[in-house]
Amino acid sequence: SEEDEENSTKNPFTIPPDIDIFSIRDKEREKAKEERERRKTMKIHEKMTYSTKINVKQKGFRKAFQKEEEEEDRKQAAETERLKAFQDSLSWKIALTKEKESFHDYVNNRRQIFLLEYIMAVKRDEIQRLENLAKTEERKLEKAECYLEKDALMFDEFLKENDKNSAQALKM
Question: pLDDT for 33-47, tens place per residue?
Answer without folding.
Answer: 998 898 888 887 777
